[in-house]
Amino acid sequence: MNFTIYGNPIEHSKSPQMHNAGFKKINFDGNYTKTHLEDGNELKQNFLANEIAGANITVPHKEDAFKLADEVRGLAKEIGAVNTYINENGQVIAYNTDAPGFMMAIEEFGDIKSALILGAGGTAKAIAVAFKGASIDTTVINRSEGRLEFFKKLGCKTYNWDNFDCDKYDLVINSTSAGLKDDNYPAPKEILENILENSTYAIDCIYGKMTPFLTFAKEKGLKFKDGEDMLLFQGVIAFELFTGCKADKSLIEAMRQGLSG
Ligand SMILES: NC(=O)c1ccc[n+]([C@@H]2O[C@H](COP(=O)([O-])OP(=O)(O)OC[C@H]3O[C@@H](n4cnc5c(N)ncnc54)[C@H](OP(=O)(O)O)[C@@H]3O)[C@@H](O)[C@H]2O)c1
Predict the structure, then answer these.
(1) How far apart are CA 199 and CA 4, in angstroms?
(2) How many CB atoms lie within 10 A of CB 187?
(3) At the N or C end, where does the chain have fewer CB atoms within 10 A?
(4) Closest ligand 1 atom to the C-alpha of 123?
(5) Ligand 1 mean position, distance from CA 124 (Å)
(6) Domain total for the chain?
(7) Does one domain contain both 42 and 92?
(8) Are 111 and 89 a contacting pair, CB within 8 Å?
(9) 132 among known catalytic residues
(10) In this structure, are residues 128 and 79 in contact, taking their beta carbons and an 8 Å threshold?
């Protein structure tokens, strides 16, 4: 059975090595590849024409994927973006596994009651919807005002850098792309310092590097982690949808090895 990940760019994706390691572990007859796709409007047609059994969708096509699906299931309906397609007898069924994957990634922090999300892009939306489902009191701060409307409607407290009023938070999340290809903080240093001094745990959605955000969190004594588990667990949940198999510890470990290998 054929599986793929669609994105642009896609060269950097580690999803094939993660999923292929999982298929091997359970002797599943699957082959997962990468597909570079320029035009998100061609997603569904490409998926069906190439007889793909299941796919992941990454930047910048998650919203197009949502619009094109025959049926959207679960939290994805509220998020407005999907990262997983399943071919059910020629019908394209879509899910968002980023949201539950993020919740699995923060399990080790214990009972989170309040959270501050830095950033208001697609990832922030998935996290905020998951938090709403878990009754976590959620605040969002973003550099610009425009993208905050979604979060206001969801019931989050929202701020930009000019009107931010800091509270206490169990968890602070960097969901901006600051630190991905630069050395920027996700908010001005004074604001970030105030936030970190009033928070217990920190997670960056960026993975595989100590970002300026994580370095600062460490300096302030917070327990912290990067986005690798978030990537792993969205993959694990997608894998369960692809194969119909429940992932146990040894399968998750094989997928983690695949990711790092
Ligand atoms: N670990 C994983 O599995 C995983 C999964 C998905 C995404 N990610 C990571 O999550 C991050 C966000 O992805 P996304 O898809 O949500 O991106 P997105 O939709 O493009 O949103 C980017 C957000 O970052 C803000 N931003 C960008 N540069 C900034 C800067 N220099 N300072 C402060 N804010 C800045 C933007 O603010 P404005 O609104 O003001 O432009 C916006 O809120 C990326 O780094 C991505 O690699 C990780």
Answers:
(1) 39
(2) 24
(3) C
(4) 16
(5) 8
(6) 2
(7) yes
(8) no
(9) no
(10) no
How far apart, in whole angstroms, are the C-alpha atoms of residue 186 and residue 148?
Answer: 16
CA distance 255 to 12: 17
Query: Distance, CA 51 to ligand 1 centroid (Å)?
Result: 32
Ligand 1 center to 119 CA (angstroms) = 6
Q: Write down the catalytic residue from 25, 34, 44, 62.
A: 62
Alpha-carbon Rg for the chain, nearest whole angstrom, is 18
Whether residues 129 and 184 fall in one domain? yes
Q: Are residues 65 and 151 in the same domain?
A: no
**Is the CB of residue 79 less than 8 Å from the CB of residue 130?**
no
- Looking at the structure, do residues 213 and 248 belong to the same domain, yes or no? no
Could you say which DSSP state residue 16 is in? H
* 114 and 127 fall within a common domain: yes
CATH number (domain holding residue 17): 3.40.50.10860
What are the tens digits of pLDDT across the range 53-84?
A: 999 999 999 999 999 999 999 999 999 999 99
Is a pLDDT exceeding 90 seen at residue 261? Answer: no
Q: Is the pTM of this model over 0.70?
A: yes
